[in-house]
Amino acid sequence: MDGFSKYLAQRLFQFFLVLFLGISLTFLITKLSPVDPVEQSVSLMTSFGATDPRAVELMREALAELYGLQGSLFEQYINFWSRIIVGDFGPSLSSFPTPVMSLIMAALPWTVGLLLQALIISWCLGNLLGALAGYYRSNMLLKLSGALVMALHPVPAYIIGLVLLLLFGFIWPILPISGGAQMNLPPSFSFDYIRSLILHGTLPALTLVLGGIGSWFISMRSLASNIVTDDHVVYAELAGVSSGKIFSQYVARNALLPQLTGLALSLGGVFGGAVITEFVYNYPGVGRLLIQGIYRGDYSLVLGVTTISIVAVAVAVLIIDLLYPLIDPRVRLG
Amino acid sequence: MLIKRLAAAALAIAAMAVPAVAQDFIAGIPRNEALIIQGPAAQNAEWFNLWAPGGGSTTNGNQQLSADTLWWINPEGTGDAAWTNALAADKPQYNDDFTQMTVKLKEGIFWSDGVEFTADDVKYTVDTQIAHPGMGWSAPFTVNVESVEVPDRNTVVFNLKEPNSRFHTLFTVRWNAAWIMPKHVFEKVEDPLAYSANPPVSLSAYVLHSYDKAGNWAIWKLRDDWQRTSIGMGLTEAPEVKYVVYRNAGNPDARVIEQMNHNLDVINDIAPEGMFTIARDAADTTAYWFDGFPFAHPDPTLPSVLFNHQVAPFENKDVRWALALMIDIRAVAMGSYRGAANLAALSTPPTGTSITDYYEPMQDWLTSFTLDTGTRQITPYDPTVAEQVAALVRPQWGDQIPSDPEQLKRMFGFGWWKQDLQAATELLQKAGFTKNGNQWMKPDGTPFTIKLMVEGDNIPTLARAGTIIAQQWSMEGIQTTIDVAGPTWGQRLGPGDFQVAIGWTVETWGGHPDLSFFLESYHSDFIKPLGEIQPPRNLQRWTDERLDALIEANRKVSFDSPEVVQLGMDYLKLAVEEMPFIPLMAYNKFAPFDTTYWTGYPSAANPYAASGPFWSNLRYMIVALEANPSAPAAQ
C-alpha cells in the first residue's frame, strides 16, 4: 500500500468513525431529554379544554403506541440505524405523521440559501479587508474598517439582529422584518418573487455577515502580516514589482489556503442552520425547525437535523483531507 | 488606488441591494379587506386534519375559522348571553339519570364544498374517533359513549356508559372542543390519522384561501355562502372582514414594531414594556381591553404558586398559609406586570361570570374570614389592595387611574391577603419550625429552603412574579432559589418534579359558573404517586375528603342548576381555608388591537367575544368588526 492509499484508508476510517460516534451520541443525548413527545402531544390536545383524567390516561397510551415509542432503548437504537442508512428519520413526533425528511427538505433551501450567501459574502469581504489591512498596514480607512469589524465580532447575533430590526423595521422601515417572502406570493422564478426573497433575506443575511466577517478578517490579517515579512515579498518590493501585484499574487494568494479550509468547514456547518438569526427574523429555516423540535420533545426531528449537520461537516472535512495531498506533497508521503 | 476602486465597487453593490421601496404587504389582497392576526410558526404547515395529533392546525385559523361544533360559551360573557347554540338548535337534553343526551340540530347548514351537514356527521365524528385511538377526542368518547343513534337527519342521541351531567361540554367550545368531522370526506379515507385534510372543507364562515408551506402564514377567505353556516345564520349583513390572515409575526419586539407599522391588527401577547410603548406612541390607532391602564385582557386562567403536597413540608396547610402571608402582593403586581395585574384571592380567575357569581357575593365572607395562627385569630383579607396598587401606578399613569373603588376592582382585582410577617412566624412555629438567626429551620432541624420553579423567558411576567416571591421568602429567612425549567417546565409539573412552582392549576369556562371544567380532575381518585404523571390540573396533588364530596355533588346536578354556584362557593371557601396553592392573579395578556383598518373590537365594556387569536370564540369578533372609514386606500 503506497503512502496515499494508506492516508486515504485512514481518513475514510476516521470519517465513518466520526459519523458513527456523532450520530450515536446524538441519539443518546436526545433520548435523555426530559421533554416527552407524548406528554407534549397530550398537553397540546388537552390544553385549554375540560380534561377527564381517565381519558387523558387512555390518550397517553394510544399516542405512545401510535408514535412507536415502545421497546427498549437498544431496540430503538437498532431500529434508528436501520432507518437512517436509507435516509429515513421516521415520522416527526410533533407533526405526526409527516416524515422528518419532508420537514427538513422544506426548511433546508431557506437555510442553505441564506447561509450560503451570507457565508460567501462574509468570507470574501473578511478576507479581502483582512488581506488589505495586513498588507497596507498604515492605511487609515483600513484601520477604521478593521476596528469596526473587530468591534462587531464579539457582539452576539441576537443583539445585531435586534438592532438591525429596529433600524430598518421601525426607525427607517424599508425592509421586511419577518418571514422568508411576501405573503400570498406563490414561489416561482418571477421577478416579484425573487425580489421578495432578496428583500426578506437582506436583514438576516446582513446580521450573519456583520457577525461573521470579523473572524475571517482577523485570521486573514494575521496571515497576511506574516507573509508581508517573508523574503519573497521583501525581494519583490526591492525588485520594483507593483504593490497591486505583490498584494494579489504574493500575499493574498499565499494566505488564502488556510482560509479555504475554514470556508469548507463552514460550508458543512450551513446545514445546521443559523438558529438565533432565524429566530429573530422568523426565517423558516432548519435552525427554527431545530428549536421547535427541541421545545416539543420531537427527538426524531432533532436527530434528523443534527444527523444531516454531522454528515455535512464530516463530508466537508473528508473532502479537504482528500484534497490536501494534491496540494501539499508532505501530506501524501504520510 | 486599488482600495478606492474596491470601495467604489462595494458601494455600487450595496446600492443595488438596497430596495427603493418595500413591497405591498400581502400580494393580491387589499389590506383594507384583510384582518391580520398573530399566529405562531406552523411546523407542519400542510396539515389541516384537526382530529389527528398532527400539530400545526390548531393555531393557524383552522379551528378558529373553519371548524364548528354544537355549542359555544363566550369566555368573557355572563349569564344566558354567554351561551350560543351553534350547530345545535337547543341546549342539550338529558334524561333523568344523565345517561342519555339528545341533541336537535339546526337545518340549512352546509359544508364549504356544498354538502349538507346532518346528524350523520355527528355520529360519524364519534364512531370514527372511538375506532381510532390516537385521534383527538377518541379517549373521552371511548370513556363516555356507549352508542350514538340518529333517529332522523337532525337529531342525535348519545347513549352514555355511565351518568355524566357534563357530557355536552365535550362539544362546547371555550377554547376548542370536539369539532364535527365531514363524513363525506373522511369516509373515503383509509386512515384518518394519516390524512392531512388539505385543503380542509369548512363548516364555518371562512375557508382556506392559501397558505405558506414554510408555515409563516395562512389566509382564510369569507365563504360565498357564509349564510349557510351556524355563525352566518345569526348575521343580518355580510361580515366586512373578507380575508383573515394568520401570520407569524416573530418575537415580541417584532410584534410591537409590526403593529405600529400597521402590519398586525391583533396581537396575542407582548411584554408590558411593549404594551406601554404602543400606548405611548400609537394610542390614536390602538384599542385595548381596558380603555387605558392596565390595558391587558385577563384570560380565564389563574397563575398561582403551586405547592407539591407530596413533598414535605408543603402538605402542611400552616406552612402554605405562612408562605402566602409572607408575600407582599403589591410588589409582585408591580414587578411582574408593572402594576397591570388583576389580583385574585379566590381559586377561580376574576374574569367573566366569576365576578358576579363568586367575587362580588363572597367579599363579606372573605373580609370576615379568620385564620388561626396558633396563638391568635387573624382576618388576613385586605379588600383595599386595588386602591393600594392604584396609588403606586398613579404617578406614572395619572388620570388614567380612576379613584372609584368599584372601577379599581375591575382593573386590579377585588383584594388579596395582607402581608403579615408576624402571623407567618406564628404559623411556622405552630408547624414546629424554629428560627436560627434569620434562617427558618424545619422541625427536623434542617434549614427550610425552597426551589421555586418557573418556566422562564417564554412567560416573562410570571418568571418575574416568581423571582419577586423568591426574594420575599428569602428575606424572611427561607432561602429560595429560582429554578428556570424552560421547555421542561410542563414536563416536570406532571410527574411532580418540583417543590414549589409558578403555574396554572385552575382554568374555567369564563362565561359559566360551573367549575367542573377543572374541578373534576381534582378528585382523589385521580391522584398519582410522586413520579407518575398527574392528569392535567391538580398539579399540586391536593386531596381532601371534603373536596371529593363537593365534586361528587357537582356531578349530580345539571350544568345550569342554581346549585352549581353554591357548590362553587363551597369549593372556593375550602380552598381559602386550606390554601392548597396561592392564587395570584388572572393571566393578563397584553393584546392591543390596531384600529387603522378595523374597529369594534371587544373590550371590558363590551365583552361580546373572546379576543385572543387562538381562542375559537374569536370568530364572533371577526364577523362583528367594522371597516374603519378612515383607513388608507386599498393597495
From TrEMBL, chain A:
Coiled coil, from the record: none
Membrane topology qualifier: Multi-pass membrane protein
Cellular component terms per the entry's GO annotation: plasma membrane
An example Gene Ontology biological process: transmembrane transport
Transmembrane segments annotated in the record for this chain: 12-30, 103-136, 157-177, 197-218, 260-281, 301-324
Subcellular location, record wording: Cell membrane
PROSITE patterns: ABC_TM1
UniProt cross-references to InterPro entries, sorted A to Z: MetI-like (IPR000515), MetI-like_sf (IPR035906)
Main location per the UniProt record: membrane
Domain annotation ABC transmembrane type-1: ranges: 108-324
Pfam families: BPD_transp_1 (PF00528)
Keywords: Cell membrane, Membrane, Transmembrane, Transmembrane helix, Transport
Family statement drawn from the similarity comment of this UniProt entry: Belongs to the binding-protein-dependent transport system permease family.
Protein name: ABC transporter permease
Species of the source: Devosia soli
Lineage: Bacteria, Pseudomonadati, Pseudomonadota, Alphaproteobacteria, Hyphomicrobiales
UniProtKB/TrEMBL annotation, chain B:
UniProt keyword Transport present: no
Keywords in alphabetical order: Signal
Domain Solute-binding protein family: 85-518
Domain of life of the organism encoding this protein: Bacteria
Record InterPro entries: SBP_5, SBP_5_dom
Subcellular location per the Swiss-Prot or TrEMBL entry: Periplasm
UniProt GO MF annotations: peptide transmembrane transporter activity
Leader sequence segment: 1-22
Gene Ontology biological process terms, A to Z: peptide transport
Family indicated by similarity: Belongs to the bacterial solute-binding protein 5 family.
The name this protein goes by in its record: Peptide ABC transporter
Species assigned in the record: Devosia soli
